[in-house]
Amino acid sequence: MIRVISLVAFLATFNYSFGQNNTLRAVVIEAESNEPIIGVKFYFEELKKGAVSDIDGKITITEIPDGKHEIEISMHGFQEIDTILSFPLASNDLTFQLEEIEQEIEGVTVTVSRSTRTIENLPTRIEFIGSEELGEKAIMNSANISMVLRESTGIQMQQTSINSGNMGIRIQGLDGRYTQLLKDGFPLYGGFAGGLSVMQIPPLDLQQFGIIKGSSSTLYGGGAIAGLVNMVSRTPDYEPSLDIMLTQTHALSSTANVFFSQRKKKIGTTIYASGNYQHAYDPDRDGFSNLGQSTTITLNPKVFFYPSEKTTVWFGINGTYDTRAGGDLLAIRNGTSIENPYLERNETQRASTQLFYATRFSEGKKLTIKNSVAYFDRNIEIPNYTFKGNQFNTFTELNYQLKKEKTEWIFGANLYTNSFNEIADSLERDQQDITTGIFINNIVDLSDKWALETGVRADYSIDWGIFPLPKLSILWKPTSKFTSRLGGGLGYKIPDLFTEEAESRFFQNILPLNKNNLVAERSYGGNIDFNYKTKLGEKVVFSINQLFYLTSIDNALLLNTDTTTGYFYYENASGNVLSKGAETNIKFKYKDFRWILTYAFIDATLNYLPGNPQKPLTARHNAGTVLMYESDKWRIGYEAYYTGNQSLSDGTKTTDFVTMGLMVMRNFEWGSIFVNFENFTDRRQARYSPVVIPPTSNPSFPEIYAPTDGIVISGGIVIKPFGNDDDDDDDDD
Predict the structure, then answer these.
(1) 505-525 pLDDT, tens per residue?
(2) CB under 8 Å to 142, separation ≥6 — which residues?
(3) What is the pLDDT of residues 607-666, one digit of tens each?
(4) pLDDT over 70 (residue 731)
(5) How do beta strands 81-87 and 67-74 pair?
(6) Reported pTM
(7) Reported confidence tier of residue 136, pLDDT bands at 50, 70, 90
(8) d(C-alpha 357, C-alpha 396), whole Å
(9) d(CA 205, CA 195)
(10) pLDDT tens-digit readout, 20-60
(11) C-alpha distances in angstroms, 664 versus 403, 628, 630, 716?
(12) Which residue has the higher pLDDT, 120 or 376?
């Protein structure tokens, strides 16, 4: 009898296991063109299982039990499909067609282009970094977004201080002040508030990045001469989401990130908290920190309100507290009680509010109102000098969108105020700026193969005048495999005290702006790109994107020295700064493998100097390769990046170098564990030239052109109590 019962139990278990072994394989295509669609979400609500379509529009979902199960197939911009599938299926290969809809599907989706169109149908060239790649970069650096930006083609993260670790973004060789950083469309990181901003933005609550290279002032106003980066936050869904990430590095850094979101009927919430502590770290063993001691705490709660199907309102508060100490290790550990130490301290407090309101009056008509208020306070202390000040700025915008079958209009106006108040210096460098702007943008489908985008903005700055800013972009789609974009526009940047050169001098002995002798910087530029995607054989997907660009800046703001007094002052350059070059991105995909090859040629010259020299700390040649394996259980990635020779400010040539990284992650139902080896060949500047020049009591710090921290080994865990659904989007150019 016992044997019979055991046999029956075994057969029942076998039958149950067999019944759980159904697999759904499907492909999703666009109804009109029959082209595969990337990023479509397939989700079984009852089973809590899902997947997202790959570059071929394909998905695979395993371990589906017998019986009838409802599945939701959805993507922004397309009609959702709700259907019931009966397992076992009569056919294992299904095809679903999605129809594009004119109005934007409900949800707070802030795109860098301001348009509701998909990236493939936009004349403006946008580089998209989706949640999948963001997740990979968060593993490599969970403390801030520097890794996401550093490994994007044509973008350089230029470290300005070995003690604070501060970095600036350089797009196509142009200084960080020419790039606008946005979060959900709000400009929160300009002027004085740009200091340390990249180091204070953690990545776990971000859904995607949108990057526009080249002048974008028509879309978002002054400052976007080199381009803009818009970070889009995650929004709540009816399914609760909780992510907990804990990371530890061998370089003595500990990071904890927690993100929670959920929507219940008309109310939704997201809460994000992040904390990072970095011990002083000295891989060179010269007694000075290569990574200073730092503590960063970030809290960002948001409340979403959906009074109707047509209206969305959300309000968020963002707060960051950050302290940093770098320099002599003994001084960091014991304070300044030791004799003649060198110690640099930074303390910052950042607080901002964001209010967003959007409503649709009828099909294709939408009103959006945005407002933010931001406060930034920073205190810098070095031996015998203190710089302290705070910035208060506001941003308000109203725009109206009108979308018809073949055309889309956006009309808008905004107001930006900025007030900087210096506390600890007698040079009276306070700044107040008020800028108003109106803009119009239009996208029209000229035919099935051509689309045209035109726009114009007029900004008025009280102290600097009126700035007309036209733009033009053209999209050509002769076939489903080939597209090309041509675009260009004008830009401007009003003079500002807070440049990379001033930051590197801690703003010491820098005279205030002389508005009588300065004019605003102005730019013009354009780019053209070609994108081709096809299949090599039956299983290998190949794509290539080739970009050529040019940006010219007139009246560039320079920081020069008065040899009589020793003070620094600002003046406009007599010639232009010219950045031109090319970027190449090649991708292969075979089953669970991806191989990416990148190359950037950057020719950034200072044409106001004799001989038109290359801009310092800008390598002409940069290349990279990434090989990824991704399955349900594993994610393994290898990457290598080449940085060519650079020129220092004194004309000295640096050496070229290669950095390599390796990441391994194992996925489970409850989350993931991972280990990452960043720069495992230990390329760091101290191997080629000093990073600190004695005497130690009054050292000098050469320009930084290579990594200073060397190899960094990290490991951690991601906990997802509500399941590890991989609903990530593939990145796309």
Answers:
(1) 999 999 999 999 999 999 999
(2) 202, 203, 204, 245, 247, 255, 257, 276, 716
(3) 999 999 999 999 999 999 999 999 889 999 999 999 999 999 999 999 999 999 999 999
(4) no
(5) antiparallel
(6) 0.83
(7) confident
(8) 12
(9) 21
(10) 578 898 999 887 667 788 878 899 888 888 888 877 788 98
(11) 45, 10, 10, 11
(12) 376
Pairing of strands 127-129, 49-52: unpaired
Residue 458: strand, helix, or coil: strand
Q: Name 373's Cβ contacts closer than 8 Å, sequence gap at least 6.
A: 352, 353, 392, 393, 394
For residue 645, report the phi and psi dihedrals to the nearest 5 degrees: -60, 145
Q: Which two tokens stand for residue 648?
A: 């220092």
CA–CA distance, 721 with 544 (Å, rounded to integer): 39
**Which residue carries 């997202």 as its tokens?**
52
Q: Which H or E run contains 19?
A: helix 2-19
Contacts (Cβ under 8 Å, ≥6 apart) of 538: none
What the block records as the tokens of 240 is 């609760």
Q: How far is CA 292 from CA 164, 269, 322, 326, 681, in A?
A: 6, 35, 12, 4, 22
Q: Which residues pair with 661 in a beta bridge?
A: 639, 678
Structure tokens at 662: 């390796």
What one-character DSSP code corresponds to residue 685? G
Q: Looking at residues 61-70, what average pLDDT do you find?
A: 89
Tokens of 14: 């076998």
Residues 242 and 720: beta-carbon distance below 8 Å: yes
Instruction: Work out the end-to-end distance of the chain between its first and last CA atoms, rounded to an integer number of angstroms.
Output: 66
CA Rg value for the chain: 27
> Quick check: helix, strand or coil at residue 75?
coil
CB 490 within 8 A of CB 522: yes
- In 3D space, the residue among 381, 674, 597, 374 whose CA is nearest the CA of residue 508 turns out to be 381
Write down the number of H helices and E strands in the chain: 6, 37
- Within 13 Å of residue 114, how many CA atoms lie on the same side as its CB? 31
pLDDT at site 113: 65
Q: Edge to edge, what strands does the sheet with 58-64 contain?
A: 58-64, 22-30, 93-98
Give residue 154's identity as a one-letter amino acid code.
G
For residue 277, give Cα distances in angstroms to 168, 245, 292, 520, 554: 21, 14, 10, 40, 42
Query: Is the confidence at residue 107, as pLDDT, over 50?
Result: no
Tell me whether the omega of the peptide bond preceding residue 512 falls within 30 degrees of 0, making it cis: no
CA distance 107 to 306: 9
By three-state DSSP, how is residue 333 classified? helix
d(CA 255, CA 248): 7
Instruction: Choose among 150, 146, 127: nearest CA to 212.
Output: 127
Paired strand residues for 524: 490, 552
pLDDT tens sequence across 454-473: 999 999 999 999 999 999 99
Percentage, residues of the chain above pLDDT 70:
92
Residues contacting 616, CB < 8 A, separation 6+: 646, 647, 648, 649, 703
Q: Which of 136, 131, 124, 145 is nearest to 227 (CA)?
A: 124
Structure tokens, 513: 């702006």
Per-position b or e across 494-523, b if 16+ CB within 10 A of its CB: bbbbbbbbbbbebbbbbbebeeeebebbbb
Question: Which residue(s) pair with 248 in the sheet?
Answer: 254, 715
The answer to whether 596 and 585 have CB atoms below 8 angstroms apart is: yes
Q: What is the pLDDT of residues 281-320, one digit of tens each?
A: 999 999 999 999 999 999 999 999 999 989 999 999 999 9
**Which candidate, 158, 163, 161, places its Cα nearest to that of 345?**
163
Q: Is the pLDDT of residue 412 over 60?
A: yes
Identify the pLDDT of residue 724: 62
Q: Tell me if residue 332 falls in helix, strand or coil.
A: helix
Q: Is the preceding peptide bond at 695 cis, omega within 30 degrees of 0?
A: yes
Residue 732 pLDDT > 60:
no
Per-residue pLDDT tens digits for 561-609: 998 999 999 999 999 999 999 999 999 999 899 999 999 999 999 999 9
How many beta carbons lie within 10 A of that of residue 336, not counting itself?
16
